[in-house]
Amino acid sequence: MSITYKENRPMSFYDLVAERCSIRSFEKNNPVPEDVMKRILDAGRLAPSGKNLQPWSFIVVSSPGMLQKIHSCYSRDWIRSAPHLLVVKGKRSGAWHRAKDGYTSLETDLAIAMDHMILAAAWEGVGSCWIAAFDRDILYGALGLTDDEEIFAFTPLGYATVDYQPVPKNRKPLEEVAVFL
């Protein structure tokens, strides 16, 4: 399956990974259609997790009142332009635990689900930006989370403004990060 982009060239998965970037300027009055949002969420639902326990749930915040409550948990004003915020939360008690040392897969499971949804959003032409630098107390209070629920990241979702220029990716060369044994 492929979609077209830019000069009507087909987009492969590898093109998608290379082209996906963080968006920090959104068309506030252009919400993501429900069918597109459901496809993005379904990509997260289909993500792998430790022992397939799927310890996550997804919250899509679109109402002005809830957006306003959550905006204060993040210090950058640009987030206020996003018509939606997608929060990935999970329960540590529902995640896989390694008996030998007590490791829990919750953070990994939530990160994989978020990554799947961010890539799906890019596939759909929807912008996102992984956010982990939030005030935990404000975000948890706004969402009314219990002691067992955890959030490791959230992302705004929306369509980038036409004049937005994303920061080019600066990645180490493959030879610097990969070893073949």
Task: Please provide a written account of the structure.
The structure is a single chain. Helix content is 31%, strand content 16%. It has helices at residues 13-19, 34-45, 64-71, 106-123, 136-143, 174-177, and strands at 3-5, 9-11, 56-61, 84-91, 149-157. Helix 2 runs antiparallel to helix 4. The mean pLDDT is 94.
Q: How are the secondary structure elements laid out?
A:
Elements: E1 3-5, E2 9-11, H1 13-19, H2 34-45, E3 56-61, H3 64-71, E4 84-91, H4 106-123, H5 136-143, E5 149-157, H6 174-177
Antiparallel strand pairs: 1-2, 3-4, 4-5
Helix pairs in contact: 2-4
Strand order of the biggest β-sheet: 3-4-5
Looking at the overall shape, the CATH architecture is 3-Layer(aba) Sandwich
Alpha-carbon Rg, integer: 17 Å
Give the beta-strand count.
5
Percent range of helical residues: 25-40%
> Which outline best applies?
globular
Q: pLDDT below 50 for ≥5 consecutive residues: which ranges?
A: none
CATH level 1 class label: Alpha Beta
Order of helices and strands, N to C? EEHHEHEHHEH
> Can you say what the CATH homologous superfamily is?
NADH Oxidase
Q: Report the mean per-residue pLDDT as an integer.
A: 94
Largest sheet: 3 strands, antiparallel
Q: Give the structural class.
A: alpha+beta
Number of domains: 1
Q: Per CATH, what is the topology?
A: NADH Oxidase
Number of helices: 6
Give the N-to-C terminal Cα separation: 33 Å
Strand content: 15-25%
